[in-house]
Design a protein that fits this description.
single chain; mainly alpha
């Protein structure tokens, strides 16, 4: 199996297109958080803002995981949309789409996101008490 040249460029094109569709999930969640977060920030409702962030992290992480698993399971069908069945580039595309799931799992770090939110609140509260007290 050749792994370079025009076949590699064709595979990367399909991979980038697929990742763009998966990337729409966190992008949509972040735009929603920006809109609702600005409302909660204007109302000085810190608890609602924190709950919104926690909820959006949970939902976008869950939806992203579902999308990644779906891409991994349906990699042959996605590849057949772009290339003829049984060709070398189609086989390379299937392998690359399945590798994506492992790459993505290493970069999902949900627990640290929650920890950072609570640490930032504690630091902010300490600074507020120091300046006002």
């Amino acid at each position: 199996m050749s792994t370079g040249g025009t076949n590699a460029v064709a595979v990367m094109t399909v991979l980038n297109l697929t990742l763009s569709f998966i990337g729409m999930i966190p992008t949509g969640a972040s735009n929603t958080v920006l809109s609702l977060g600005s409302i909660f920030n204007g109302e000085k409702n810190r608890n609602a803002l924190e709950n919104l962030l926690r909820f959006s992290i949970k939902v976008s992480t869950l939806l992203s995981i579902v999308a990644i698993i779906a891409v991994s399971l349906f990699a042959p069908f996605i590849s057949e949309i772009f290339y003829q069945k049984g060709t070398e580039v189609e086989n390379m595309t299937i392998v690359m789409l399945r590798i994506v799931i492992w790459w993505s799992i290493f970069f999902i770090n949900k627990r640290n996101n929650y920890k950072n939110i609570s640490v930032q609140r504690e630091n902010h509260d300490k600074q507020y008490l120091f300046t006002c007290g």
